[in-house]
Design a protein that fits this description.
The protein is an alpha/beta fold and 378 residues long. Helices cover 43% and strands 11% of the residues. It has helices at residues 11-23, 30-42, 54-65, 82-89, 109-115, 135-145, 192-201, 210-215, 234-244, 247-268, 297-306, 322-327, 334-342, 354-377; strands at 49-51, 72-76, 93-97, 120-126, 148-152, 168-172, 185-189, 287-290, 343-346. Strand 4, helix 6 (135-145) and strand 5 (148-152) form a beta-alpha-beta unit. The protein starts with 10 loop residues before the first helix and ends with a helix.
Amino acid sequence: MLLVSSAIVGEPERLALSTIIDSGWLTMGERVRSFEEAFATMHGAEDCVAVSSCTAALHLIMHALGIGAGDEVLVPSLTFVATANAVLYVGARPVFTDIESTENPLMSIVEAESLCTPRTRAIILVHFGGYLADREAWQDLARREGLYLIEDAAHAPGVREVGAFGDAAAFSFYGNKNMTTAEGGAVIARDPAVLHRVRQARGHGMTSSTHQRLNNRTPIYDVTTLGFNYRLDELRAALGLVQLGNLLKWNEIRRSLDNHYRLLIAKHCPEITVPFSQARTSAHHIFPILLPGDVNRQDVIDDLKANDIQTTIHYPPVHALTLYRNMYPDVVLPQTEAFAGRELTLPLHTLMTRASVEHVVAVLEGSIQAHARVGYAA
């Protein structure tokens, strides 16, 4: 089956893992530090902190910024649930914000400004699909309202501008991302003091790590702040170093496949809308489309699956999930709901070829035509 996403792992990754296993040191050590330095350099940052997941990264950022009970954080509903969950972890309240439009499914700055209150402390800006938001406009709003600006950059590793939007950025290296450590994430922060707090909090608030104590004169440590168990291990860091070496090349392959999709869909499936038609910096993490309103999405999913093509949906709106619907029953986000009701994500990854894209579009064209005819006859 042609999967929606597929990681490239091979002999270099196997060798990197074997080297760590042979070394006998599996927890945080030299590989983690090397990975942090290399990832920071790629994004034009002074430093970064590697952690166990993007969810952990978001939690640590808000913890380090002092966001907590009584505070509000603006978040999009068109995101993975972890974005909102991390707000709850620090005791704050997520305020769900609509997207700009189905053509530009990034958080609406107009809606965000209208939702600001004296309790608003931060905005979490999600680079949906790997497409970057308008940096200057959001920085402007954050300055005017006195807010922290946090980037959920799970979809956008390798884009140099990411991490330079606001106060901090959270990255994901989950198995379906542009590069992977299987599980893992990272934090970039503008203020070194914030990054220091993130670094200490990822390891129980301890003043030194096991590896540091190995090389120190004394094994004594202290705990000076509340912390968590959000560390990245040496095995994942070793994977990350290999993957990072290919990331920019892989992102370029994704860009080329994305362009091929757009040309073919415009020619063969003009009824389909492809978001982000205007040029915009992107890591091209996923390829979302909007099906025609008169076509049943499940029929198209079934047709593609019958032809060994996996699809998925990005995302069920967070405010519509049972947990959040029960917590915030009055939230209505028309643009988000309209987008999520018609969205379908097609395969996009670096193991694909132009022929793979052509096959997907051919099957998609047949499915749309078949079900549109049925709908018309009815």
